[in-house]
Amino acid sequence: MTDTPDPLPHLGPVDHIGIAVRDLEAGKHLYGEVFGLRLVFEDEVPTERVRVAAFDGGGMKLELLQSTDPDGPIGRFVEKRGEGIHHVCYRVDDVAATLKHLQAQGLRTLDDEPRPGAGGCRVAFIHPKSAGGVLVEISQPPAEGGHA
Ligand code: CO
Question: Which residues keep their CB under 5 angstroms from ion ligand 1?
């Protein structure tokens, strides 16, 4: 055993805010045409059962999420609470290590292992009950850099 502790993983900067929408085309019109933000990428994430349109929020993104399945996480969220802010995502260097660290701090997580997210990222979620009522995502970008 060594006494040298591993460096504590830290969260941040904020990568994106996830916003649940009923209609991605309407959301894209609002953020792209009305607000005038630049569309960064569009993606479909089958494991999350969502289509994603990400807009440049200046150092972070606004990710519009439309469910592809009423029983998916975003489908259930919209059914229960309507459209709106769904989660805040922090970029991390090592999602697996950060997840273990947060679990060791007693936080309840929705994932025991990182899973694939939008744009080739590896992601995991922290339960809102352990994070002040906010669903928190941590995301490790792909090695190639992925989406800016
Ligand atoms: Co997200």
Answer: 18, 89, 137
